[in-house]
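Running log. JK asked me to keep both predictions on one page so they can be read side by side. First protein, sequence followed by its tokens:
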Amino acid sequence: MQLHTLDIGIIVGYFVLVVTVGLWVSRRGSKDLDSYFLGGKTMPWYMLGVSDASGMFDISGTMWLVYVLFIYGLKSIWLPWVWPTFNQIFLMMFMSAWLRRSNVLTGAQWMQTRFGNDKGGTYAHLSVVVFALVNVIGLLAYAFKGIGKFAVVMLPWHFTGATTGVFSDENIYAMILLGLTSIYAIKGGMVSVVITEVAQFTILTLSAFCIGIIALVKVSPAMIANNIPAGWMNPFFGWKLGLNWDGILNTANSAIRMDGNDFFTIIFGLMFFKGVLASLAGPAPNYDMQRILATRNPREASLMNGMVNVVLMFPRYLMIAGITVLALAFCMPVLRSQGNPDFEKILPLVLSGQVPTGVLGFLLAGLAAAFMSNFAATLNSAPAYVVNDIYKRFYNPKASGKKLVALSRVVSIIFLVVGVGCGLLTTSITSVMMWLVGALSSGFVAANVLKWYWWRFNGYGYFWGMISGIGGALLFWVAERVVGHSFNALYTFPFLLLISLVGCLAGTYLSPAENEEVLKKFYKTVNPWGWWGPIRDKVVKEDPSFVPNRNAGHDMANVAVGILWQLCLVTLPIYIVLKQWSWSGAILVVLVATSVYMKFNWYDRLEKAS
């Protein structure tokens, strides 16, 4: 693609500005580990919320969401539940407050509050470190693959001219852009990441509205109707998906078969069941957890995750819908002419032909912001687990803050190199994403649900549950490469859940319960609901003023309404861009009703800041 000089100037100017600002504020995040990883717990909840939303507005995920909306139509609104996106509702309703009360630095350090410092607690601590580091490497590879695919279509320069191999233009672009983002993310830690992400999210939101408006102006409903199969605009489905692209774009049917999503009811059931368990397990040890722990108090932790839903969903899906509609209206001849089109490249394909000069440079800067936000947040979360949870705890407890920050920067560079290496071995965004959310997270679920809700669960149970789950996910990854054929990783969920659950129960019942004082302190501090009867009775006996948490029913009712509210935020911008006004009006009514419900049943009942 040939970019106009104005567009190139906007993009270059954006990169210079972001890196300069990130380096300028980096001094605030370099004093000690608390300031480097959590910003000293002084940043406002709304800034952390925007930062978290910006980190989730990643370019790889955006390219995938454009792909699934294009192929699956409105039925694609359910597919992000594979992450699951509704975990943000569980977090805002109760889980963020529970996590923040622990007042720790990382998810691994949290293990000490739950399981203590004995041998079992140490094993639990180390197992979550292993999970976090494997997850970070996977996310870095995912970011690498997405930005490379995007840049090679959008940017005009060619380095080797190769389309495949280690030194392909795609991979070289990815390495350059990862390197630029790493400069400020490694130098300044959380403060640099959050402040630059707030600025980046502003650009992203403006970009989203630009794309949405362009689609509204350029595309009529009739132009879309001629290029979609029956049922494309209906979000509901039967036993099977019920979409047939024959005669319109035959290769789309092949993509559905390759994804393994034809039996959509089974996929939906697996996504929902896994998603609920994953949400009850709390956030994975990544940048999302890091921002919860960086808030000032439990109330602000809940508000922060509420902010994520409000600021993320509407603009992101406005952008996704706009790009999809432009592709349906103007890119079908190109897609039909390609024997095996890469649908993950629809986003750059649309931008390369349907956006005017000047606006294109601004949009490319916004999408670069999406990549930089997600990548910086992921990279910043990695060294906390090595430096704080291994080096400081086991090797050098008295290390100075400056030394720990310096070591964190070295660890970040190491993980950057490993992540790039794994990215070079992958071929698609979807394959990496589905392994992360379909296989690896399946091995995470059982142990991390039980740790919150069952008093008898101990450190040995957590360790064996996590190790068996992670091991099963890695074996699946190896098996795919040995066989040379990939399939939907969601189908591994029941098996990995069972394997992990057996490890949890065996490890728990073959070893003694945790120290009673550790359990009482955890229960009194975090105050979760669940099967805590024996511990709850002893805490209340010792402290009659203590009020146990009996809000399970209320919290889950809020979650159900919150998921419906979130779906409205997702579908409303899509139907607006499609100019389906009857659907838009009905969704808006439900959105207002659910918002009023949550005002009285969630916001007004948040615990007051101490």
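And the second, directly underneath as requested:
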Amino acid sequence: MPITDPTWIFFIVLSIILFAPMLLERLHVPSIVGMIFAGLLIGPHGFHVLDRDGSFELFGKVGIYYIMFLASLEMNLQDVQRMKVRAGTLGLLGFIIPMLIGFLANRFLLGFGVAAAVLMAAMYASHTLISYPIILRYGLSRLPAVNIAVGGTIVADTLTLLVLAVVGGMFKENVSGWTWVWLVVKVILLGLLIIYAFPRLGRWFFRRYDESVVQYVFVLVLVFLGAGLMEFVGMEGILGAFLVGIVLNRLIPPSSPLMSHIEFVGNALFIPYFLIGVGMLINLNALVSHAEAWVVALVMIAVGLFTKWLAAYTTQRVFRMSTDEGWLMYGLTGSRAAATLAVVLVGYKIIQPDGSRLLGEEVLNGAMLLILVTCVCSSLITERVARRLAMNRHTEVSDESAVLPADRLLIAVNNPDTVGTLVSLALLLRRPRSASPLIALNVVLEDDPSARQSGLTQLQRAEKMAAAAHVRMQSYSRWSVNVVSGISHTVKENAVSDLVVGLHQKEKLVDAFFGKLGTDLLASVERQIFIYRGTIPLNTVRRLHVLIPRKAQFEPGFSGWVERLALLARQLSCPVDVYSGKETLQALRHYGETHGSRIDPRYHDFVSWSDLLPLAHAVRQDEMAVFVCARRGTISFQNYLDRLPVQIERYFSMRNILFVYPAQKSVRL
């Protein structure tokens, strides 16, 4: 002891990651707590099975970057935009209250100097989203309270790290007032660089490379580039990782395979490694042997827990949120780790003119105990509240499922070039918590048996894409005398609610726009049909433009396509522009208000039905035009819909196009 062989070090760490959750699940203790305690037991201040070597430094840094990156990546930017006042309030209160109360406690109760008291107060003001993986496990990452807590994190930690930079800089040579101005300027310039350049670089890359491993590595490169640049200008890398997550948010939809890969690797390896490393820093022996250290630690813990609770409670009361939402915000913002470690280590390394350290051993050990206690309390509170909210939400979803249409999507695959785009669209249209699998169908004509093997290959590719996003898929290779008959029968046999097909590719100038297949499908299938043509990947679409015919609100499938398009917009985190007549727009507003839609589209009274040129000018190449159509003989059918294909060929040849034909009968399982 300690073990130094890399093979056995990695084996022990992986064993902890594997068995700790299994053991603690029976004790109803969050696995995060188990990781920290395991690090305490096996670390240099426990049984000294392992040293805190370079691997823990490396993976620990990766883990905290991963937590911050995931937190910003999982945010719904549209919700954050609406809740920026609440998030800013929580962030400011979470910084100001701990700084004020902490400074007074450090100065008058513990007797520290002004600089040391301010730096210790900064430890109380910072927080780390240690319990965020619990939110991910319960599928609550898009709750308003979670978005407020995540948004408040960046405010509180940014101000905390600025305090750290100022206090730390006071003990450096050749420091002037311009030093702080130059620091702020560098941080602003770097932030603008990340905000402006990284999304454009991401869109360019995703449009050219669709291999999952390459995309994942590219995302990690951007995360560490942002973190490294932030450290280079004098701030902590967690701010850079958080900012990169925000700018990449719209390029990585929650239901995409790439998001599944990012969450899987982080939760399986990097984040547990970081938590074990945090536990290895805690030295209980120093606390036992020094009574003064206990006093410092107890004051730090009491102030740390109380001030963050007060900030969350005040935010809850000011904005009239529920008690569970207040406790959830407290659970997320109550733990300390990354920024607190940065503050205490900087203070420990600073040597004052009299030769003493700015923050001594008692503060270092007190900070470690503060990290341990706050992480445990935060995890327990978050686990309890998240479980309760998840159960309530499950009840709401069950009630909602009785009202919403069934969620069984069928993807008709035939062209190898469009399999990936159609599966991606179906994943984004599917309700995230739906228990129904996706269905993929390839129809083999009886007079062309040689096409069967190609169809099976396409079905296998579709299954792999769905599996990468943790979605079940049923695939069928069906023999039929014609494609329409095969699709129609499969729709009826599987009670399909939505059919997703690719747009017909014209081979001859005289061919119909939708082709004979599309035209016959519209006549044979009464379920909702999505006909899609993609020119750029869906995750790089920046805005949806939705054209809706007048009287569309009177169709039986009105709620079906509204829910699907709203879900698509939320998945893409992109704004929506809606064009229609006044009465239809009013019906859409009313539907959104009564059903609690979380999108806030811009409505346009559209009158240029005979010529779509004004709409074409509004749709850029990185945006998508959605045309809600109508079958002939239905209430919302208008003669101008017959001329729609000609205008689309003329004005939208280089745009992503989605046609939606609403269901003609209500679909229930």
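Observation for JK regarding the second prediction: Residues 405-529 form a domain with the Rossmann fold fold (CATH 3.40.50.620).
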